[in-house]
Amino acid sequence: MSEPHVGVYPGTFDPITNGHLDIITRATKVVDRLIIAVADNDGKGPLFPLEERVGMIRAELDSLPGNMGQRMEVQSFDTLLMHFVSDVGANVIIRGLRAVSDFEYEFQMAGMNARLNASVETVFLMAAERQQFISSRFVKEIARLGGDVSSFVSGPVAKRVVAQFGRPPR
Description:
Layout: E1 6-11, H1 18-27, E2 33-39, H2 50-62, E3 72-77, H3 81-87, E4 92-97, H4 100-116, E5 121-126, H5 136-144, H6 155-165
Parallel strand pairs: 1-2, 1-4, 2-3, 4-5
């Protein structure tokens, strides 16, 4: 019997978007178990504290159809990604690509990760066409300026983002 494919999908998820959920859902077709790894990266100046981001992701996974969420878990990390991957026994890193501009950075990162641990593969998944332009950064900017983010994130996440800025959508 072959070794199960355990994937890690890393990111800051600040906040989790419909694009992230698209990649998460599709990643379950590639791996047997998926760990959504939430980076504790204060350098990015996150809108939400780490614990809140983890909680939002868990709530989103609970709302997935069927028992899809049973094959997933959410963990935070504040180490080198490859150390985290090794610690959880993963052998695949999942990375989402929205546009060609993402590829150069992700390609370099995959090369560095392969040098750190050649037994871990990086799998790139293209965002679905409807999700290609969505980023957490844009969601936060739209909400900060009073725009409607409800088509980019789930209803519960939209409410939390809007509450952070105290400015209802116009």
